[in-house]
Amino acid sequence: MRIFARTHQLPPRLAAAAIILHSGLDMTRVDDQAAAGLHGMATGAYPFLSRMDPVTFSRLLSRAQIVLGTALLLPFMPSLLAGAALTGFAGGLLGLYLKTPAMRREGSLRPSQQGIGVAKDVWLLGIGLGLVFEELGQR
């Protein structure tokens, strides 16, 4: 496994890291009401999360985003590992988009006004898959 990221992998890693890290740091300051709203949206798509306390869920999500964002920033973090983590995270976001009808126009995969922010996260999936496929292709 390659130890250092290739130079051309750094711009997409930095772009993804900036967004994810910013979101994770912002989420450290959510109040109970915001945590409940975030948790409610997540449990609508992923019912197993309903057993978790909303504040605990928000804190764990925040920490996961901070860890992922930091890992993407570190050039010595193997791109295969960083890409796999990013792909998993983005897959979860897109699953939320697909499983929440209000985020899509009726009878379509096209985003509604409420879903446009999450639908745009498809680029995170593209970056993650690009890192994974490139590293697997080098083997």
UniProtKB/TrEMBL annotation:
Keywords: Membrane, Transmembrane, Transmembrane helix
Protein name per the record: DoxX family membrane protein
Membrane-spanning parts: 80-98
Organism name: Nonomuraea turkmeniaca
